[in-house]
Amino acid sequence: MALTPARTMPGVLELLPLDQIAFQRMLDVIRRNYERFGFLPIETPVIEYSDVLLTKSGGETERQVYFVQSTGSLNAAEKMNALATNTTVPELALRFDLTVPLARYVAEHERDLSFPFRRYQMQRVYRGERAQRGRFREFYQCDIDVIGKDSLSIRYDAEVPAVIYSVFRELNVGAFTIQMNNRKLMRGYFEKLGINDAEQQMLVLREVDKLDKRGADYVRDTLTGEAFGLSVEVANQILAFVQVRSTSLKDALDKLDALGEGPEAMEQGRAELKEVLGLIHAFGVPETHYALNLSIARGLDYYTGTVYETTLNDHPQIGSVCSGGRYENLAGQYTKSHLPGVGISIGLTRLYWQLRDAGLINTAQSTVDVLVTQMDPAQLPAYLAVANELRSAGIATEVVLEAGKLGKQFKYADRAGIRFVLVLGENELAKGVVTVKDLRREDQFEVARGELIKALRVELEQAAVMG
Amino acid sequence: MALTPARTMPGVLELLPLDQIAFQRMLDVIRRNYERFGFLPIETPVIEYSDVLLTKSGGETERQVYFVQSTGSLNAAEKMNALATNTTVPELALRFDLTVPLARYVAEHERDLSFPFRRYQMQRVYRGERAQRGRFREFYQCDIDVIGKDSLSIRYDAEVPAVIYSVFRELNVGAFTIQMNNRKLMRGYFEKLGINDAEQQMLVLREVDKLDKRGADYVRDTLTGEAFGLSVEVANQILAFVQVRSTSLKDALDKLDALGEGPEAMEQGRAELKEVLGLIHAFGVPETHYALNLSIARGLDYYTGTVYETTLNDHPQIGSVCSGGRYENLAGQYTKSHLPGVGISIGLTRLYWQLRDAGLINTAQSTVDVLVTQMDPAQLPAYLAVANELRSAGIATEVVLEAGKLGKQFKYADRAGIRFVLVLGENELAKGVVTVKDLRREDQFEVARGELIKALRVELEQAAVMG
């Protein structure tokens, strides 16, 4: 039989075990922190009805959707024809984010949920992107959202940065800054400058969002060009506005005041930002970790108030590692209920890939704490007894079950990232001791059989702290 | 705008948060135990190339496969035509199990893996099943496998029941029995009865697998009927063989001996089973939890030696909750390397669904440990300070951020499965205490602010033990 080449499609990130362990640790940190703030888990199916998935979106998003059909349904000739002639949209599709499934979930289960509904969701999503370095067709999103029924206090907008702070501090990725803005403030400021049309405001907002990528000159040229036709003066005021950054809480409040009076939307946005900034401190986020950044717009029309982006101070090239904001109504396409919310998303696959690229991921350590070697096949029951004890004490233990040279067994442990190796030879068994080898420190010691668990716990705790 | 009905396709299990928490706890128990035995995590993409996925399988499996196409590729007219006229298989498909992706993974990354390669994988798989109660189109599989390079000691076949025992004991689903058999023993016994053709042996084996569902008379009639043409005597010997069950280790060994001498395959199977049974004890599995059951065949041609099924003693109608076995060569379709292995799979979605149906799942408790109520909006900073402390101590804490009646806040906690509620009113703040309400026990007590964490830890530990 000819062999089929073993391969995966481009745009997926498949990891070797030690890398997967590092990835899993990040997932665990995120989950632990989401739960610590009282967010509840949900999971939704990967496959959704395409009419449910594609109510809102069009254009770019729709072209990237993966459609799904089972071979069973392919048999129905009329469906095939419809598909071939493009007369109907296929029935099923893979989700491309977690927000649309959340909207569907909340609308579907509304009567069974308690509001404010605080949910987290950490699952993979699918986008048929063009294959390109750093672009993923399958990737994890780790989302939280708080959904209110009819209304949702602005205070929740201040809780979100506390969650971000808690997550990224524990992810241990160096200094980071949670950058904040408010869409009402932006639109209100544009209105103050004479841009009254809501659609025009959105277009300006999208232009401004390109500031970091394209630079001020490009944005100024576009705004004063044919498409927008703004005066140089107005364009310059917009550019000055979006270049506002704060260096402390007081500085942020001062800079908001310095924008001068404006129309209602602007005043509302400013009041919201001030309340949020004022509360963040009480939520335990230090001033060093958040800032006003009036260029943050987030491309999506979806957001209506507070918006967030989080950047790593020492790795600006990575861009935002956690983004989100406040929206007016989650699920208008499925329900008449008014469901405002606020949320964020961490694109973990891309983040992991970038952090690894930047050398910030430690992938040296296995989940296996201890390898019990096999010196003498006849002593296997003794090795297994030790392993049973260790496992009962919560220590992840692998036993070598194939006979082989001890040196080869050490090599296996080393290669597999297992730090501690136990040796129970004739000597050790006679003396009632165990030899513990620390492959990282290239050190070893003997310990009495009855003291083994205690000794290993100390070693493992030290290893966890010291690395 | 007309509303789109919010709904999911049949055959998926979407859970409300408290149910999701119970499900997640099961996933965590399984993962923890897999890791405790030194299995390493991997995850593979949901989407695979269909030529990779469908090398081996045909028939039933192929009809159940979900094929995938992105809208981008749908635009290519020739592909559409090919699809419509069924001239080529679509390029991408969703995995229908974790075994084929494992084979592909091991073949693809062979040079980067250490052997024996011990991996666990807990992900969802997809099958386009006919919609039917208890049949899932999307479901979790939680698999472990040990893969050897060239060879793999039979001892690993004895480790597998130890993992099963460890998992199901902690899942807390009542008494269970790991039932074992060996395909070599079965085929060798059939050979002893004069059924020499390997294919014929497989067909008998598949008939025998229906014993529990169809009963002995049905199987006897089939074996003596036209298709098989066996004598009544041979059929009866087969039925006697497959009705062998052991009640203890000694009984198992005795019953294996009582089968009499047989051809080489039978002797090999018996020797393997004896070695496995003999070692299981050293792996710490009590005699009460495993048994010989010579009717266990597992339908798949795939298995070549030891086979396992695990049943719940008090819920036989649930059937096997964890099955697997030994196979000769994992990835022959992708690589010339000889990769024998042994593994098991837990179909967690179905298991959860069945256990819930049988009333064996407790879904009353949230992941949120504590709700901090809001008596006085002006005291919000004090409430947040308490929450920050609790979260730093690892206690999952939600703070009520919307003003509202206290009674309504208690109701919210109760409905959300949050057991402990903190009240910090004027009184408490003046006295430097906190009132802790236990909604489960309908009890409450005051505790000094500085003693709060300690007191809550005691309560939470008690709650975890006592339920």
CATH homologous superfamily grouping of the largest domain in chain A: Bira Bifunctional Protein, Domain 2
Biggest interface and residues each:
A-B, 111 and 111 residues
User: How many strand segments of chain A?
Assistant: 16
Sheet having the most strands of chain A? 8 strands, mixed
Total individual domains of chain A: 2
CATH class of the largest domain in chain A: Alpha Beta
Low-confidence stretches of chain A: none
The name of the CATH topology of the largest domain in chain A is: BirA Bifunctional Protein, domain 2
Looking at how many chains there are and whether they match, the oligomeric state comes to homodimer
Which CATH-level-2 architecture of the largest domain in chain A?
A: 2-Layer Sandwich
Going across the biggest sheet of chain A, name each strand in turn. Answer: 1-5-6-11-10-9-7-8
Report on this model:
Chain A has 467 residues and is an alpha+beta fold. Chain A folds into 2 domains: 17-357, BirA Bifunctional Protein, domain 2 (2-Layer Sandwich); 370-466, Rossmann fold (3-Layer(aba) Sandwich). Chain A is 42% helix and 19% strand. Chain A contains 19 helices and 16 strands. In chain A, strands 1-5-6-11-10-9-7-8 form an 8-stranded mixed β-sheet. The first copy, chain A, has a 5-stranded mixed β-sheet with strand order 13-12-14-15-16. A 3-stranded antiparallel β-sheet of chain A has the order 2-4-3. In chain A, strand 12 (370-372), helix 16 and strand 13 (397-399) form a beta-alpha-beta unit. In chain A, helix 1 (17-36) packs antiparallel against helix 7 (155-171) and helix 8 runs antiparallel to helix 14. The first copy, chain A, is elongated, with a radius of gyration of 28 Å. At the A-B interface, helix 1, strand 1, strand 2, strand 3 and helix 4 of A face helix 1, strand 1, strand 2, strand 3 and helix 4 of B. Strand 3 of chain A pairs antiparallel with strand 3 of chain B. Chains A, B: Keywords: Aminoacyl-tRNA synthetase, ATP-binding, Cytoplasm, Ligase, Nucleotide-binding, Protein biosynthesis. Chains A, B: This is Histidine--tRNA ligase. Chains A, B: It comes from Dyella lutea. Chains A, B: Its main location: cytoplasm. Chains A, B: Homodimer.
